């Protein structure tokens, strides 16, 4: 693809903003959006014919395209769902039923990472803890020096969860790439540890994985593996896949939380009909796969170049700010964490949100900010000796250009020169008069 073709495919992006945050919402090129519009028109032109003739064959093609991309046995191992949040709900509902129906006992453990995504943590609590599970969190170091540091932490937490063999661990939830802070997790190794240690089920939440790192679901070896297709694979919102191995006895017991007339036909078919709605995001998966194939090296080529670029941009920013990357390059996919100058005094998640909002509104940069509340095991001071407590999470996707990272670099440098600190963004406490008026 030439630069001009890429610019044309993403001409609908607001060019006034330095958008270095592909990670949150992904992106969808014009050619895939055009295909989506064709599917939507086909439906509206004759809904009954669409329902009887086109919908299910179209969804079957999408499942086959995903199966080929992720090394699944065949399309019957793939369910298409709206997003990773839905995939997590399917798994958690299944595990909750195992508690409710007595296959698992109250007090059996469920393991998740400290940096498991907030919605997934809530899903674990809403379904599984409520059904009787004891939830154990794996404390992860950040900044992180090596995959071995994560493996060591995971082993220690698993031993704690097993409580000397007195407790069964029924489920481990492992992120392939954590969201915030973003780190590529040695997922294959952690799944193997779970197998050795007798963990019943492993769910890999790989919301960010496909398009950022090579995905081979058989090689990872989890029971359940889910990835969004709308983050890094150029699909429009909202579509994700959930993989379950053929022949896994759990497959027949897994159900979509939205029950329809397809209930009991297997998860791929249940997910393919959850009532009347717009299925076009799921129908354009083959177009997104064709789009990515237009790049040299296909999806692997795209992710390799994004990785190289995001590391290059991360190093450029860290050098300009006197800081460092939050992980070694091999633990970055197409996203990287870069320390912000300690003088910003980022002391809370609210500070991080307010700073992000200011960068969006006043500097036209879109970038998520992470507040690191942990006491760190490794030195995390910047070149001026100030403690680094905040990080930007930068992304690189095919549409990004160096100038966008320079806008971010210059905005932060200007704030440092201006003597900015997050205290300036905090709401001032109410005065005595305001307090009296409130009563
Ligand atoms: C690790 C992880 N899991 C789950 C999700 C939820 O994805 P979605 O909002 O598309 O369901 C995200 C979103 O960023 C994520 O990073």
TrEMBL record:
Superkingdom field: Eukaryota
One matching Pfam family: Aminotran_5
InterPro entries named among the record's database cross-references: Aminotrans_V_dom, PyrdxlP-dep_Trfase, PyrdxlP-dep_Trfase_major
Keywords attached to this entry: Pyridoxal phosphate
Domain Aminotransferase class V, first and last residues per copy: 60-246
Gene3D superfamilies hit by this protein: Type I PLP-dependent aspartate aminotransferase-like (Major domain)
PANTHER family: L-CYSTEINE DESULFHYDRASE, L-CYSTEINE DESULFHYDRASE 2-RELATED
Name assigned to this protein: Aminotransferase class V domain-containing protein
Biological source species: Eleusine coracana subsp. coracana
């Amino acid at each position: 693809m030439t630069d001009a073709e890429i610019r044309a495919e993403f001409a609908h992006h607001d060019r006034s903003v330095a958008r270095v945050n592909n990670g949150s919402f992904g992106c969808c090129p014009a050619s895939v959006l055009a295909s989506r519009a064709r599917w939507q028109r086909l439906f509206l032109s004759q809904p009954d014919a669409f329902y009887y003739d086109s919908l299910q064959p179209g969804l079957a093609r999408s499942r086959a395209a995903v199966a080929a991309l992720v090394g699944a046995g065949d399309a019957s191992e793939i369910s298409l769902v709206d997003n990773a949040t839905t995939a997590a709900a399917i798994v958690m509902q299944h595990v909750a039923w195992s508690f409710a129906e007595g296959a698992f006992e109250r007090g059996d453990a469920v393991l998740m990472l400290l940096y498991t995504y907030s919605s997934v943590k809530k899903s674990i609590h809403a379904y599984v803890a409520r059904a009787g599970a004891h939830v154990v969190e794996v404390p992860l170091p950040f900044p992180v020096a090596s995959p071995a540091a994560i493996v060591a932490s995971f082993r220690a937490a698993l031993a704690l969860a097993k409580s000397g063999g007195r407790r069964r661990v029924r489920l481990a939830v492992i992120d392939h790439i954590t969201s915030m802070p973003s780190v590529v997790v040695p997922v294959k190794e952690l799944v193997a540890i779970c197998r050795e240690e007798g963990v019943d089920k492993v769910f890999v939440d790989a919301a960010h994985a496909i398009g950022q790192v090579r995905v081979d679901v058989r090689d990872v070896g989890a029971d359940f593996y889910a990835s969004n297709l709308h983050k890094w694979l150029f699909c429009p919102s909202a579509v994700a896949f959930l993989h379950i191995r053929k022949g896994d006895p759990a497959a027949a017991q897994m159900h979509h939380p939205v029950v329809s007339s397809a209930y009991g036909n297997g998860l791929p078919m249940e997910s393919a009909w959850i009532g009347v709605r717009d299925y076009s995001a799921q129908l354009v998966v083959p177009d997104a796969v064709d789009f990515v194939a237009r790049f040299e090296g296909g999806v692997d080529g795209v992710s390799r170049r994004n990785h190289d670029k995001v590391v290059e941009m991360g190093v450029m920013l860290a050098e300009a700010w006197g800081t460092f990357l939050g992980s070694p390059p091999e633990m970055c996919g197409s996203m990287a964490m870069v320390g912000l100058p300690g003088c910003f005094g980022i002391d809370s998640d609210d500070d991080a949100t307010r700073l992000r909002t200011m960068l969006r509104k006043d500097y036209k940069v879109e970038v998520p900010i992470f507040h690191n509340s942990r006491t760190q095991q490794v030195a995390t001071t910047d070149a001026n000796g100030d403690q680094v407590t905040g990080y930007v999470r930068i992304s690189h996707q095919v549409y990004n250009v160096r100038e966008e990272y320079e806008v971010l670099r210059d905005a932060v440098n200007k704030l440092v020169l201006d003597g900015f600190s997050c205290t300036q963004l905090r709401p001032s406490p109410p005065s005595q008069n305001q307090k009296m008026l409130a009563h």
